[in-house]
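Q: Could you fold this chain for me?
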Amino acid sequence: MRVYRRRRIFGSLMGAAAVAGCGFQPMYLPDGKAGGGPAQEGLSEISVAIIPNRPGQLLRQALQARFERGGAAVARKYDLYVAYGISQQGVGIQPDSSVTRTRIVGNASWNLLAQDATRSSLTSGTARSVDGVDVVNEQFFAADINVEAAQKRVAETIADQITLQLAAYFRRKV
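A: Sure. Below is the predicted structure, expressed as structure tokens.
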């Protein structure tokens, strides 16, 4: 048992040394200032435009929660515009044409603009997420709740992808 523990500790130390040697730094690493690192500072300066419909509201709320982690009021320098859509496809189809499983696909394309006189486009990208819901016969209320929960999971995943892409942009920008 001790040999295994020593090997595990040695392996962890070697892995940390290898990662440190290649210049790796965490995306949200503080740089000694009062706030977070350049990625977190850039994210907190983004204003998220309105995204229509209920799935769009879920995505906007998820993005705002990720961007405003510090909680302090920060002057906005950027506007984020997101085109977001969700589609549903029946994938579990019975011989009587009833659907027993639905696939929910969310697609988003986004564009980050500077709040300057020219409204210059700084970066853009896309994000995609897939989830599924089982449909149980005669349980319409439960099916609606499951679909809404899946739409929220899709929005959360897409918000994670957009946040990571924007954080990488701000990290490279420095």
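A (continued): The longest helix spans residues 140-173.
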